[in-house]
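Appendix B, Record 12. Input sequence as logged:
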Amino acid sequence: MTNLMMGGLQYHEAQSALSNIIKAMPVNSFGKPEEIANACAFLCSDEATWINGAVLSVDGGMSTC
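Logged structural output:
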């Protein structure tokens, strides 16, 4: 956990807050940088040539809650 994620909270307070956030997420985990990178790589690939003006939510389902 980074200092930015802790937001000035003590470690045990931040752990509790993050645990509650994770429980509320549809996938029950935080995303990893490579998961965002995979979406970017797909959009830059030849497989995505017909995707135009679409919104691709890469947020573990949070925008649909």
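The chain has a mean pLDDT of 84.
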